[in-house]
Every structure is written in C-alpha cells, then in structure tokens.
Amino acid sequence: MLNRIIVILLVIAAAVGYSVYQKKTLEGQLEHKQGAILAKLPQATFETLDGRPFDVQKVFEDRTSLLVVHYWGTWCGPCEAELPDLLSFLKRFEGQPEVKFLLVAVNDDKVKVEKHLKTIAIPKANITWLLDNKNVHRDVFGTTRVPETYVFSSDMTTLRKYVGPQEWNKTMFFQTFDEFIQISTRKL
C-alpha cells in the first residue's frame, strides 16, 4: 500500500514538474514571437520561378498601394487546402495593378511548385510567384510556420499578419481589404 502511494505521489510530482517546464517554455516562445512582429516591410530578396532575384521593396517603386506577402508550400497540407480559396479571393483584385501579391513557396522544389500551379486556376490579379529556399521568411520576417500572410501599406508599414490557413472568401476579408486599400491610398 505504501508503495502505491509513493508511486502515485511520484507521478503527480512528475506531472506538475512537466507542466511548470512547459509553461516556462511557452512563455519564452510568446516573448520571442512578440518581438518578431514586423512594424515595416523588411529588406528581403527571394528568387523568382525563373531563377532571378526579386527584391520585395522594389515592388513599391511603381505606386503600389497594398502588398500582400503569403508564405505557403506544396509540402504543407493546410497550405494546399487554403490556396484555391486564396486565389479565388485574389480574383477580386483583377484590374487593380496597385494591389500586388507575392506568393512565396517556402523550402520547396521549383519543379513541384510549377507542377502544382498547372493544376489550379490562377486569377489575373497582380501575382508574383517566388521561392524561399534560404529561410528568408524565418530569418527576416520571423515566420515560423506556414501558411502565413502579411499585409503592407504603401508606406511599407505592416497592416496585418494572418497566421495559419484562412477562409479567404468570407465577407470579413472583403471588408478588411477594402479598408486596407483606403488606408494605403491615403498614404500615397
């Protein structure tokens, strides 16, 4: 009987100790993530699908009012599930050259990306497909998981960050992006 009580107490002590350890680890991660939220678009260079370097800040040289940077990967199930919905949402911006979208495939194979793009309907919105196999997304943007989306205004300030897959065709996104465009256009 005494042995059972000792075993039960040891199990409880181990569970409490593990809980305290996990809490401290989580607090440390949250503190780090708070510092990783971007105030402005950082200087970053990705690679186009045809192998050329692409400087994200140069997007703003031609009167861009809104820039959306979306990180995804063909290897990421939630990303693949979200991408058709995102592309459907982007159709709304066809004919608006001042709104630009950078869709960055993270740690992905160029051939797989190109093959995947052939299987989906791509809108005529201003989309640039990029690769990030040098972890620029993590090192410069602070992105630790995909999908993840940043929205930047015309003065390169961060308007919003979306973490995880989104339901892009909800009315909330249409209204929010209309507000983003109004804010950005005033800053031009």
Number of strands: 7
Which stretches of 5+ consecutive residues score pLDDT under 50? 28-36
CATH architecture: 3-Layer(aba) Sandwich
CATH topology: Glutaredoxin
What portion of the residues fall into strands of 2 or more residues? 15-25%
Q: Major sheet, described briefly?
A: 7 strands, mixed
Mean pLDDT level = 87
Q: Could you estimate the helical fraction of the residues in percent? A: 40-55%
Ends apart, CA distance between termini:
77 Å
Strand/helix succession: HEEEHEHEHEEH
Structural class: alpha/beta
Order of neighbouring strands in the sheet with most strands: 2-1-5-4-3-6-7
GO molecular function: oxidoreductase activity
Organism: Peredibacter starrii
Subcellular location: Cell envelope
Pfam family, one: Redoxin
Describe, in plain words, how this protein is organized in 3D.
The protein has helices spanning 2-36, 77-90, 110-117, 136-139, 171-187; strands at 45-48, 53-55, 66-72, 99-106, 126-132, 148-153, 158-163. It is α/β, with parallel strands linked by helices and 188 residues long. The protein has a seven-stranded mixed β-sheet. The model is unreliable at 28-36 (pLDDT under 50). It has a single domain, classed as Glutaredoxin, CATH 3.40.30. The longest helix has 35 residues, at 2-36. The chain has five helices and seven strands, in the order H-E-E-E-H-E-H-E-H-E-E-H. It is elongated, with a radius of gyration of 21 Å. It comes from Peredibacter starrii. This is TlpA disulfide reductase family protein. One of its GO terms (biological process) is cytochrome complex assembly. Residues 35-182 form the Thioredoxin domain. It is found in: Cell envelope.
